[in-house]
Design brief:
This protein is an alpha/beta fold. The chain has one domain: Response regulator (Rossmann fold). Helix content is 39%, strand content 17%. The protein has a five-stranded parallel β-sheet, with helices on both faces. Strand 3, helix 3 and strand 4 form a beta-alpha-beta unit. Helix 1 crosses helix 5 and helix 2 runs parallel beside helix 3. The protein is globular.
Amino acid sequence: MTSAGTNVIEILLVEDNPGDVLLTKHAFEKSSIENNISVAEDGEQALDYLHKRNGFEKVITPDLVLLDLNMPKKDGRDVLSDAKQDENLRRIPIIMLTSSKAEQDIRDAYDLYANGYILKPTDLSKFSEIVSAIEAFWFSLAVLPPSP
């Protein structure tokens, strides 16, 4: 059961690149699990969404966050740190979905309690494979805590 009490998986995609947003949405359209993807275009908007403020008061708390690392306003590290320090948000799985292969970025993400770190592929077939793996693990194998 999802945080919304339905069988629809709520995903927050935090991504500033419109091409990557389209690629991600397209990959999830082929998903075997019904999902709804909301998009935040920068870290500041992501935090407003997660904290349900500044126009996002009625949004459904996501079941999963896919978070880019390098974004305008607030970067992925800021969003991750904020979410994992908030007792109402810390249990939401947050997966870094980024093009950065830098060891320091990977280390920083896990130090801030990222639940995973995935490198963005450049083509749709590889992206579909990643989406299938995310689905299989987070929504079939893993047991997630109920939302607060």
